[in-house]
Amino acid sequence: MGLSQDNLKGVVLALLSSGFIGASFIIKKKGLRRAAAVSGVRAGCGGYAYLLEPLWWLGMITMIVGEVANFVAYAFAPAILVTPLGALSIIVSAVLAQFMLKEKLQPLGVLGCVMCISGSVVIVIHAPQESPITSVQEIWTMATQPAFLLYLGSVIVLVFLLIFHFVPRCGHTNVLVFTGICSLMGSLSVMSVKALGTALKLTFEGKNQLLYPETWFFLFIVATCVITQMNYLNKALDTFNTAVVSPIYYVMFTSLTILASVIMFKDWDGQSMGSIISELCGFIAVLSGTILLNSTKDSDRGSSFRGGHAPLSPTLSTGLFSGNGETPKQDEENVLLSEEICLRKQELH
Q: Which of 31-40, 151-160, 169-178 has the lowest mean pLDDT?
């Protein structure tokens, strides 16, 4: 199946987004190391010297460019195509880390990269063609159809149940509680981002959508969902190992986003069963590759500790949050934790 012009633009933007975001983690990490070397105080210990480090700001700017490209990609292509491609940022980080940070990529990690790339190619080849949208009111009609309202109601009920019932009881012992809230809210934020992005695209084409209250309502939903998502993502990262949170969050978030997109935008309408099965297989390959890449990095870290040496650098699994709410502060703390252990070991000797 050939790609439409809009789908092609969306794929290119999604790939650029993954490239920029993946590279931003490496640039920020080098900036954090340089700032720590100059000031002697690491970000994980409360230091803020990195704010004066140009390399760290270059990393932040690179990440912002990537996030903007990701936002615009949703205006051109369906979420079922754009969202899984976010996993490619992990590959960019892993490859750059091997050359720039001397982090060794194990054979199973290479296999994970190959699976992510292969799955992404399959998804792109069999991606559905979106019906042209002429106004934000059209999207509002899709958002208020009974099937999506049922999904929306289910998400709201589940989020309230998780926040008010499960968080006080097992939020700090069960990783699925915080990641579940993030993933459910994340699926709604992506739908709203797509609606808002499409409205802005139409506005720039000369069809002003800012006159409609629906556009501003979608903006409000984006802000609400992202703030909630970021809040509970931070709690998950603060409570549990990043290598545990990352794959679970990515799998849940991506799965729920695709489900929401299929319901709201009817992505699979008109597609053959073969194309749908191919997309699902590609999606499973991407998820499997992501988990495999993550697990090999975590096992490397564990073997380093067992050998009596702290790892020179932590995993780059935080790259999983490329399009979904990765926080700079949490990244800084995770990035420098192992280096702090290294220093302490050196002081003991």
A: 31-40
